[in-house]
Design goal:
The protein is α+β, with helices and mostly antiparallel strands and 69 residues long. The protein has one domain (4-68). Helices cover 36% and strands 14% of the residues. It contains three helices and four strands. Helix 2 (20-26) packs across helix 3. The longest helix has 13 residues, at 32-44.
Amino acid sequence: MAPTLWHCHFELDYLLSQEDTSLAEMLKGGTPVELRANLICMKAAGKRFLVVGECDKVAADGKCAGHAV
């Protein structure tokens, strides 16, 4: 079996539970209000996780699906 690389992820519920200042420190791409709105939309679309960094192989739940090394 070949080794597999996995990108780390956050649970959306964890991110949504953070205060605005913490959320802004963890994520980039907008104000805390904009970030929270995007996370809520992701959750409404059936995602449960947000991959950390760039991943071109994301599973339906939002986790990295793994990359053969």
